[in-house]
Amino acid sequence: MPRSSEPALVVFLGLAAAALAAPGKGPAPAAPTLGKLTYVERQVEQAGDAGAWSPVKEGAPLRIGSRVRTGTDGVARLELPWMAVTVGPSAAVSFPDDDLLSAVLEQGRLGLIAETRDILKVVTGEAEVRGRGRAVVRREGQRTLVTALAGRFTVEGAGKVVVLGPGKGTVVADKQAPTAAADAPEPPQALKPGTDPLYTIPGTPVSLQAAAKRAQNQIEVLPVGSEVVLLQRDVGAPPWRIDIPWPGAFRWRVSARDRRGLEGTPSADGLIAVDRP
Questions:
Q1: Is a pLDDT exceeding 80 seen at residue 23?
Q2: Residues of CATH 2.60.40.10 domain(s) within the chain?
């Protein structure tokens, strides 16, 4: 070997020896588990801190630092030890690795259920929501809309706080205080199908009707005996059409939205039975 190569060889051997002597580094520990995704319908994706988005399956862990987003017809249910979160279509929510645990709603709709302990703080660009019971939080553009369906919730924006009891709602615009607690829209009546079930087969579009006074509404489909929302849609005036692709016994309900977009308490249930042909 030419003499001019000897210094380079010495450096290479030194680096190799140092690499062999240094203790090996294992993979970075996973972030603490916050809960899991117990229901996933259609397009639902998850990403870690600064990670790429990838499709997620039911049963996947929900970790601190993760983000979840849904497609235009996607729905996800996130279950934590003390609360459940339904993520509606076209929504994005994250759980940052901060000193105080919170959920950051970037866009879309969250349905919250926490009847034994306070919810973790829900943060948007305009507001912070805390409380116990059942609530709906929406973020549309630079507005946050909150309705308490049951229990008691506080909504803070621009240093001001509004307290919401059942059936009350508020709207928080960018850099403004929450509006005074006001009655949320009344639930629609006279659902068809109602308590007399409609029988159909999977994949057959079902027509839904109600005496709805508002031009904007929101419908949900759930299994009988369960609070898991399987389908959720923002819709206009009735009638509406949905396709339930699974066999089983289901209930549906509708909530009105006022001219501001504030969502009201849901209607009584209508029943749909889907059986194989």
A1: no
A2: 189-274
φ/ψ of residue 157, rounded to 5: -155, 135
> For 154-200, how does the pLDDT look when each residue is reduced to its tens digit (9 = 90+)?
999 999 999 999 999 999 999 999 999 999 999 999 999 999 999 99
Model pTM? 0.87
What tokens were used for 38?
A: 């117990």
- CATH for 189-274 is 2.60.40.10
Q: CB within 8 A of 222, min separation 6: which ones?
A: 228, 229, 230, 250, 251, 252, 253
Domain with CATH 2.60.120.1440 in the chain: 33-183
Residue with tokens 């006279």: 190
Give whole-number Cα distances, 147 to 104, 122, 213, 225, 273, in Å: 17, 13, 19, 24, 30
The CATH fold assigned to 33-183 is Jelly Rolls (2.60.120)
b/e burial code for range 233-244 (CB count within 10 A of at least 16 → b): bbbeebebebeb
Please name which of 257, 246, 204 lies closest in space to residue 224, comparing C-alpha atoms: 246
The pLDDT tens digits for 94-135 are: 999 887 889 999 999 999 999 999 999 999 999 999 999 999
The band of 30, judged by pLDDT with boundaries at 50, 70 and 90, is: low
H-state helical runs in 37-164: none
Q: What is the mean pLDDT of residues 19-33?
A: 56
Give the Cα separation of 226 and 233 in Å (integer).
18
d(CA 222, CA 229): 5
